[in-house]
Amino acid sequence: MTDIMVEASSVADESHPLLPLRGMLVFPYMITPLDVGRERSIQALEEAMTRERQLVLAVQKSPETSEPEVDEIYETGVMAEIKQLLKMPEGQIRVLVEGLHRVRIEEFLETEPCLRVRVSEIVETKESGPEMEALMRTVQDQFEEYVKLSRKVPSEVIVAINSIEDPGRLTDTIAAQLIVSVEEKQQLLEIPSARGRLEHLVLILSKEMEILRLEKKIHVRVRKQLEKNQKEYYLREQMRAIQKELGEKDAIASEVDEFRRKIEKAKLPKEAREQAMHELERLEKMPPMAAEAVVVRTYLDWITSLPWSKQTRDRLDIAGAKQILDEDHYGLEKVKDRILEFLAVRHLTKKIKGPILCLVGPPGVGKTSLAQSIARTLDRKFVRFSLGGVRDEAEIRGHRRTYIGAMPGKVIQAMKQAGSRNPVMLLDEIDKMTMDFRGDPASALLEVLDPEQNNSFGDHYLEVSFDLSNVFFITTANVMHNIPRPLLDRMEVIQIPGYTEEEKLEIAKRHLWGKQVAANGLKKNQIMISDNAIQKVISDYTRESGVRNLERELGSVCRKVAKELVEGIEPPIRVNVNSIETHLGPPRYLRSLSEGESKVGVATGLAYTQVGGDILAIEASVMPGKGQLIITGQLGDVMRESAQASLSYVRSRAAELGIPVDFYEKHDLHVHVPEGAIPKDGPSAGITITTALVSALTGRPVRGDLAMTGEITLRGRILPIGGVKEKVLAAHRAGIRRVLLPKENQKDLEEIPVNVQKKLDIELVEHMDVVLEKALLDPLPGIGMALEGDDASTEQMPFLPTGFEQESQQPWMGNS
Questions:
Q1: What is the distance between the alpha carbons of residues 615 and 635, in angstroms, rounded to a whole number?
Q2: Which of 249, 322, 525, 710 could form a Cys-Cys staple with 742, CB 3.0–4.6 A?
Q3: Is the pLDDT assigned to residue 1 strictly greater than 60?
Q4: Among all residues, which ones are annotated catalytic?
Q5: What's the pTM?
């Protein structure tokens, strides 16, 4: 046996045009047609026709690439000869080529107007011997069996293959007939020796025949199943024929078959499948025009269209999820951390119950859009329905099928809309539900939002359990006190407070401004707005916790600028703090500013509203009378009771405060909270009312740069309050320097921005005596006591703050 010798001899220094092939490969001795449409490929053909009709054919690595680069083409190809060329309509060319011999691309010379290369021919010497003969016979036998199993290769090829004696030509001819990937064929083309190609062909043919045998087994199994189905079909056809002879219509039979296919496709759980098949058998036996048939059809439509087994795959990339959340929303760190925690746990364990979050916050802070962002982050489907005004239990659980027009509840309808069993489902405005004689929808939601029960949620219409444990439930509410306690207990509440002015500025710059510029047909280079201008819009034209009105006002600015552009003003138009009033008119809201002046009977309190925090100047006045307490300013019951408690505290501590003990017998007290058109309520103004009363009764001014908030008890203890962040921010905006807060609210200071804490002197107090010590100044010269004209016998004691030990020993002084 002679050793094989492979030589690569250069094909002179001539350059040859190159035609890149997509999705196919040409071997030597192979004649095949090609459809050519790319510009560079057409240029290559035209040049080859002028130069002995020869060109190089090489496969490009990615068939999707329209114009491959030099490094995207395999180095081993084939020198081919153009046998025939035909120009087709629409600029395409059909060409018949024959592979001549293998070549290796040594250098790319040009890329325009076509690819030109210098190549070297790969020449192999002949090899013979018993081992080569055995390899050739093995390949021929395997290929013959492959043709019989495949049925995609014509059997006439076998005769041609058996007549080939040259090993190299045999391997190339067989390789051209194989139905394998282009990559595998390229591997064969790159093997220079006939022996190597024969050995590689043995492996490929063995693998392909094994696959073809498995395909044959599958076809046999399918054919048997088809024969069974044909038998059933034949019997059903006979039944239809009998029904036709009896005069009965058989239109329902095709409908039954359609439902049977849907049931099989839906992959129902055992319980649901049994129920569906039972209803299908009923439908099959019913007369076509029966009224009950319509009910059964609707039921089968619903039960087969639900996503019993379909679900999407979660995106578990925490870094990518964090990036998406930050792109969609600014701030809201608590919610973002909770979503990332869920993803982390989901990454560690495959089975986890869907969380149930309740986002509580004022309107416009982004609760609904945040839910959509969570769905985008998890790569889940998103569905939403509103619970506002829902007062019927059947809206949640569905109606029983005994009712005309019965349908499943909103939860099942949302699952059908989602099309997967693990969507993000938003239950909007859960605090707006009501109840009447038709039932309590909040009680029906207890099962939906209970992680221990919702894996078998029972809808009255379906009459079978549906698994909701994979659903990511998110509910939204403006206030918590309207949500029933058992329902609230099942949810993880996340408070979303109103945005600070700094946060609103960032949201406007990052999201709202660009959105409104695009929505009003403007381009970024046509309009520019300064940070100070946005800040003025926030403070003077909106009063809200969220950013809805801010977005509307920015949209109004964009519309005004669009009008100016159409009228001929040259861009860019710059909007600054001085031109805002030109676009939006005079300011709609005046910022509440601290008067800064220390006054008798006037104390500055802090309030929390649905649109954020604010300051209130609470006024107290003393006048001759009979001990009546007058309260004005449209105050609610809780605030009125707080004023009564304040007066009782002052009366019980009159001696220590330097106030005549019987002051209430000859004087009336009037407490007024300005802006009387706005309703006010809550206990947090207790210490402010007390301070104003003591100031009015003693003539001692209240510090003008100090604000306070806290609930007071009859013994002077100061209880914690809510809305600390919003109230402190309101004090900061109003120019307050010192703030008094209940000591038990120390935990809430973490939510206050650091830059605000640095600018304020925040003091924590436990008792009213400490508040009075810090808030009241010495009497102003010439003012004297507030209770002039009292009897000389009335003891005038100087103000002396007392501690807790002294207070506990002080006897109770009630009304006399």
A1: 15
A2: 710
A3: no
A4: 684, 727
A5: 0.56
